[in-house]
Design a protein that fits this description.
The protein is of the alpha+beta class. The chain has 4 helices and 21 strands. The chain has 2 domains: 163 residues, no CATH class; 125 residues, Beta Barrel (Cyclophilin).
Length: 319
């Protein structure tokens, strides 16, 4: 690829490390899912810290174990989960930009809090787009650093832009308290078309009792364990599924669908988690507790606009 050069080499791949831009849109009619960062909040701030425009490709690192060596001098930022990251033998600061010299090694160890960290480099990672995006969807074999939906493997090389970032180094750091991924999150849910088909006790329980994250949780969806929800609908024609759709199958245990979800589904839905709630859910460990709270579409839109403005303010390339 012209305009780019080797940036980081994989010394050890870890459980799952994927290249993700904002996602693949306009292709669900083809049965192709969205992809993109499971935690859009941490992904966006990592890019912001590195001086990149909204949409730049960053690395999603799940559960740690990844070891990278710099092939050139770089400026990078890591946001999201605390995976005990180090730069050589020193702690790698999170939620700020950091200078890395050629030959230095970045290591992600076991999670201290959260599941997914996002590593962005100044100028962004570069790869050939597939259907308009480099977002890596392993199940569909699309995107990623090689175009085939492959997670990073040992000796892979991530390409970066030669141009670097658009801001002088050392000028961007998180100015607030970082997210506490150990706290019990209250996930905002916009009630959906079938919510009136659930009986009263089920609706009360859904929003007033805790849910536990099942071990069956990945980039496709997260199963919630708790009170059994009862719906009067015994069958439905399949409908399109958006990010955060909360389906309730016959066993009464909801499934919150994330970035790599299927494109249609026939289970009734409580509604949809708003994007920042999906981001927070993506950082929850199996066995941890979450709660649901109902919000209006207007409230969810206002919250997302505030987030988007804060992370793109002054960014002329934001879409």
């Amino acid at each position: 690829m012209s305009g780019c050069e080797p940036g980081l080499r994989v010394l050890r791949s870890g459980p799952l490390a994927l290249l993700q831009d904002e996602g693949r849109f306009g292709v669900r009619r083809l049965g192709v899912t969205q992809g993109g960062p499971a935690d859009i909040h941490a992904w966006a701030w990592a890019n912001r810290m590195a001086g990149n425009a909204w949409g730049a490709a960053a690395l999603e690192v799940t559960l740690g174990g990844l070891v990278l060596q710099a092939e050139r001098d770089l400026r990078l930022a890591v946001c999201g989960a605390d995976l005990n990251a180090t730069l050589d033998d020193a702690v790698l600061p999170l939620w700020r930009d950091v200078s890395v010299r050629r030959g230095q090694v970045v290591r992600f160890a076991q999670p201290a809090s959260g599941l997914r960290a996002y590593l962005a480099v100044a100028g962004g990672f570069q790869a050939e787009p597939v259907l308009g995006s480099v977002a890596c969807v392993v199940r569909e074999g699309l995107g990623g650093h090689d175009g085939n939906g492959s997670p990073l493997a040992e000796d892979d090389v991530l390409m970066v832009s030669k141009s670097g970032g658009r801001r002088a180094e050392g000028q961007c750091a998180w100015r607030d308290v970082p997210p506490d991924y150990t706290a019990v999150p209250s996930l905002a849910l916009i009630p959906g078309a079938q919510i009136a088909e659930f009986d009263g006790p089920s609706l009360y329980a859904a929003f007033h009792q805790p849910w536990r994250i099942n071990e069956r949780a990945d980039r496709m969806g997260v199963r919630l364990c708790g009170p059994v929800l009862h719906c009067r609908l015994d069958r439905m024609i399949s409908e399109g599924l958006g990010l955060g759709a909360v389906q309730v199958p016959p066993d009464g245990q909801p499934i919150a669908l994330l970035n790599d979800r299927q494109t249609i589904g026939g289970y009734p839905r409580l509604g949809a988690l708003e994007p920042l709630a999906c981001a927070r859910l993506a950082q929850c460990m199996p066995g941890s507790e979450v709660r649901l709270r109902a919000v209006s579409a207007e409230e969810a839109q206002a919250e997302y606009r505030r987030f988007f403005k804060s992370v793109t303010e002054g960014d002329l390339n934001a879409g």
